[in-house]
Amino acid sequence: MNTSLLEYRIAGLQRRLAEDGTAELGIRVEARSGLVLVHGTVPSTACRDELLEVIAAELDGLPVRTDIALVEALAPDHPEVLS
Amino acid sequence: MTAPESAAGAAADTGAGTAVRIAAVGDIHMGEESRGLLRPAYETLSGCADVLLLAGDLTRHGTADEARVVADEIAGLPVPVVAVLGNHDHHGDRPDEIAAILRASGAAVLEGTSTVVQAGPYRLGIAGSKGFGGGFAGRCGSDFGEAEMKSFIRYSRRLADGLRDALTEVADCDVRVALTHFSPVADTLAGEPPEIYPFLGSYLLAEAVDDAGADLAVHGHAHAGTERGMTGGGVLVRNVAQPVIRRAFAVYELHPRAARQAAPA
Ligand SMILES: [Fe+2]
Ligand SMILES: [Fe+2]
């Protein structure tokens, strides 16, 4: 078994994000040419910090690019009128 | 907390009394770290909505402590709050306790049940179920084979049947909304990897909505999906997962059939 293969490292990160306390199932981890892209939206800066820590630990040694947005908590400025 | 800066200005008081105004959001995934985050926006609801629907995944891990953060966030709001739970709210294996904590703060928590809210002159019926996965017509699991597979599909079917029954209960309302966490349609999943669609929703929910009838179906769960879709029977579907709508909530104005017919063209 070769657990250093990129696809298993990516699967390992996604499993850990879901199951090990971060409970982030909506985060995408994708192998791009030359780097691993991790992107998605989280509810708070605390969640983002926690997430970045797990990513750094789990993908240690790999070139990683993260794009983690925070949810927006403003009220909408207009309704959608449905017909 | 600082005073809320109202961003609902343009929405304020539009449609009051002539339309049913439904505010909705799912996947707020609250924990101690997000306490108070949504409250300022929720306090603007009296000006722009008749009800607030919460489409599940209200907590991160389904703990009682997280549920109390949600309960505090929605306690004493100026509009009724109606919720379903999501898969995250089940993660702690105590969904009944989570529901009880939310109910204690005044919310109605639905699972195969319905509630009626008065929206100006109109009666708004809301039928809710968490729903579950299984996939979409032609690309879905079957009640066949291993016990685990059969129980997966039977569970999904049982919840969809509950939604159908609940919608039927409110058949006499002016407007009916189906509230779920999992998606009834694939439309609103666009943006998610197609391979995981069977974990994001089930056509059984859409079939229930089309059988029993509804004016709108609202769901969450698909954080990377899109907002707009429609069932095979023509019922509008909106994915209100907070990362999708990118607001504290979305507001949909529905004009009841009776009002539409009475209004000049
Ligand atoms: Fe979620
Ligand atoms: Fe979910």
From TrEMBL, chain A:
Name this polypeptide is given: BON domain-containing protein
Organism from which the protein derives: Actinacidiphila paucisporea
From TrEMBL, chain B:
Annotated InterPro entries: Calcineurin-like_PHP, Metallo-depent_PP-like, Metallophosphoesterase_sf, UCP008292
SUPFAM superfamilies: Metallo-dependent phosphatases (SSF56300)
Source organism, top-level taxon: Bacteria
Gene Ontology biological process terms from the UniProt entry: lipid A biosynthetic process
Ranges of residues in domain Calcineurin-like phosphoesterase: 21-224
Official protein name in the record: Predicted phosphoesterase
Keyword Transmembrane helix belongs to the record: no
Keywords: Hydrolase, Metal-binding
GO molecular function term, any single one: UDP-2,3-diacylglucosamine hydrolase activity
Keyword Repressor: no
GO (cellular component) term, any one: membrane
Pfam families: Metallophos
